[in-house]
Amino acid sequence: MRSVVMAVSLMGPLVAAQENARSDAAILADAQAAFDRGVEKKTLLLESRRNFAAAADHYLELHRRGARSPGLYLSLGNALALADRWPEALWAYHMGLQLDPNDKMLREQLATVRTKVIFPASGQGRPEPDSWPAWLPRPRLHELFWISLFLYSATCVLGTTAWLTDSPRLKLVALAAFVLAGLAIFGLWHAIIEQKTQRDAPLVVVAENTPLYRGNGTSYAVQTSLPALPRGMEVRQIHRRGDWLQVRLTTGEVGWIPARAALVVAIEQ
Questions:
Q1: Are 46 and 2 in contact (CB under 8 A)?
Q2: Could you read off the pLDDT of 11-61 as tens digits, one per residue?
């Protein structure tokens, strides 16, 4: 009898170990299979959503295991959106764009799912419009550094040569290089500021409709200008105290929300 009890008590850890031993490739295959079943059952809404939710959970398991790629977050976001878990989908698309800001599909899907957010009639908290031209690639920080260094060096060489030879053509080329170097250095400075902002005040997607409190607790009053935040709204975390986050809206309002209602966009290093 004692041996039977011991065998039963060991079954739990053994099953857990077998689950952990599953390869990432097997989990990915399960995710894709569940997603395909969701597409096949698209006329049966509830069953289809269950399959998409299962696919999303498999992709999330890969995320929890440390997998990081734009493709993973695109697949995860699509599965979450089709499972009607679209605030999480917004988080997934933002996570992917942290890795590759030039991914066109991630940006398109983000824009599509953002239309589901029910913002206040006053327009408070709406995402700021993207000022970067869609056709222009977004260089990474290290790319901007090397471009800036190259153009600065070229400006120095061309400027010195133009001054020694007194060549009008070289002077124009040196001036053009100077302007380009200035733009590249400005872009590098802007990218550094953006990176610092994301590190110090990471983007947060509100996971569920939640009151916006004046302090870190339900005993505080709610903000009068915007009593509640709709799920899917994007805010910035400016402070954390225990299980509460102090957040700032794109329109400047500041308040507190429970951490359980927040999905923080942050790629762990």
A1: no
A2: 454 444 455 568 999 999 999 999 999 999 989 999 999 999 999 999 999
User: Strand 228-229 to strand 210-211: parallel, antiparallel, or no bridges (unpaired)?
Assistant: antiparallel
For the chain, what is the largest distance between any 2 Cα atoms, rounded to a whole number of angstroms?
100
What confidence tens digit (pLDDT) does each residue in 62-112 have?
A: 999 999 999 999 999 999 999 999 999 999 999 999 999 999 999 999 999
Task: Please give the backbone phi and psi of residue 120, each rounded to the nearest 5 degrees, phi first.
Answer: -60, 155
Closest CA to 206 of 88, 52, 107, 51: 88
pLDDT digits (tens, 9 = 90+) for 200-243: 889 999 999 999 999 999 999 999 888 899 999 999 999 999 99
| Integer Cα distance of 3 and 7 in angstroms | 6
Q: Are 70 and 238 in contact (CB under 8 A)?
A: no
Q: How far apart are CA 238 and CA 202, in angstroms?
A: 8
Long-range CB contacts for residues 141-147, cutoff 8 Å, separation at least 24: 141/188, 141/191, 141/192, 141/195, 144/184, 144/187, 144/188, 144/191, 145/188, 147/184
Closest CA to 151 of 129, 114, 177: 177
Pair 173, 159: CB distance under 8 Å: no
Closest by CA to 86, choosing from 123, 120, 117, is 117
Sequence-separated (6 or more) residues with CB below 8 Å from residue 71: 96
Average pLDDT of the chain, as a whole number? 87
Q: Measured in Å, how far apart are the chain's first and last C-alpha atoms?
A: 50
